[in-house]
Amino acid sequence: MTVKLIKIIKNKIIKNKKGNVIKYISKKNNFFKKFGEVYFNEVNFNKTKGWTLHKKNKCIIICILGKLKFEFIDNKFNKKVIFLESNTGKIIIIPPKIWFSFKSVKKKSIIANFIEQPHDDREISKENNIKNILSKSS
Question: Where does 3-137 sit in CATH, by number?
């Protein structure tokens, strides 16, 4: 899998003077196939979570609070950086077999991650240090 397959999708924002509604997932979306689970991940300022690789699951991620810096690395050591911010309606779609981490660049950030199969520890790989990932891949 390559980082070139990571997609950013601009989703619909319904403007409302009491507060906007940001659409996340619909069964009408062509990137959505089946439901596994959705979880929320809170990240404190300047803290990084990851590195994580899903072996089978595609991740469909939206920022619901704050702003995050995502970093991606594929098995050919190609890198990509994407910033994701709440209230933009943007979604990142991460295919399987891509390492990623995310860091909050605001006081606190929260993402929602939609995956197509329920969490299974055997389906993911985790690593705290990118240097270890690069040495495993070589």
Answer: 2.60.120.10
Instruction: For residue 104, list its beta bridge partners.
Output: 45, 68
Angstrom CA distances, 81 to 28, 34, 72, 78, 117, stand at: 28, 27, 6, 11, 26
Q: Is 127 exposed, middle or buried (0-12, 13-18, 19+ CB in 10 A)?
A: middle
Burial class (CB in 10 A: 0-12, 13-18, 19+), 9: middle
For the whole model, what pTM was predicted? 0.87
Domain spans in the chain, listed from the N-terminal domain onward: 3-137
Q: What is the pLDDT along the chain (138 residues), one digit of tens a residue?
A: 789 999 999 988 889 999 888 888 888 878 878 888 999 999 999 999 989 999 999 999 999 999 999 999 998 889 999 999 998 989 999 999 999 999 999 999 999 999 989 989 999 999 877 777 776 654
